[in-house]
Amino acid sequence: MENKNKLNKLWPTYLGEFYNPEHKLIKEDLIKYFLDYMKKNPTSRKGGENLKLYESGYNLHTLGNQYFNKLLTFISNAVLAISSEANKDQIQNLKEPKFHVAINSSWFINYEKGGFVLPHSHSNCSWCCVYYLQLDNDADYTNGGTYFQKTLPIRNINDFGSLYNKGGIAKVKPEEGKLVVWPNYVLHGSTPYSGKKNRIIVSANTTVSLIENNKPVPSN
User: Fold this and answer.
1) pTM value surpassing 0.70
2) pLDDT of residue 131
């Protein structure tokens, strides 16, 4: 008799970690660009989820800085990689598919000592990301790290069969030159930062479109 058994993964949550090979080539130029930006725009964007930090406007991808554009290229390639993996079942039926990654918003945050961001999620995008541009040497999971809150309902069952559903927080170690990418619906925040150097990160919100006849294909 034919074995028709199968296991399905329903709505898995993807979390990508990518390392920029050109980080050292653009780091200092980006820091200088951000410091100049802060001098020209001394008032930080205000948000109830933020403490002890400077946050830029959300339009950096429109300003044309060559070093920021290089970072955006790296971000776009990483988003395309994780999107392609998440949607591989749909892609396998397409002949020579082409995609376009749109940067809907992008910004930097310069954290002072004690700065952090409370849990929040992003709208109007499919994939979000954080890129660690500058950190002190002692940065780790509990010092300037990024954490993600569980999307599944909490279950108070502790048998072996439920171990896969254990825990409510996933932590990512911050490292210079690392990019972390996740779906827009995941609540995330950062742990208080205590380094001597300011913690500087870049974030972006993105969408991915299938291109046919040089035009985006509407999703169903």
Assistant:
1) yes
2) 98
